[in-house]
Specification:
It is a single chain. By secondary structure, the chain is an all-alpha fold. It has one domain. It is built from four helices and no strands.
């Protein structure tokens, strides 16, 4: 299945990975889009690391680093595979 990448997807992915994404404007739908984009763009192991590290950065930037849970992040991303 091919997914068309829109400009907004590219922008979201770039700002997420560079650490410039505004945590206040980051919603569940954005997390789902990013999970899907990571899985479509990278091998699973790479997607897991990039997605998890991006969420760690985002949580730290929002002053909520203690709310990031690596196991939950991995499970969330792996569930998107199926």
């Amino acid at each position: 299945m091919n997914v068309r990448v829109t400009g907004s997807d590219r922008e979201l992915m770039a700002s997420f990975e560079s650490g410039t994404l505004d945590a206040a404007g980051f919603h569940h739908v954005d997390r789902v889009r990013l999970a899907w984009r990571h899985l479509r763009q990278y091998p699973v192991a790479v997607a897991l690391e990039r997605f998890a590290s991006g969420l760690r950065r985002l949580a730290a930037a929002a002053g909520k680093a203690d709310r990031h849970h690596e196991t939950v992040t991995w499970a969330y991303l792996l569930l998107r595979l199926y």
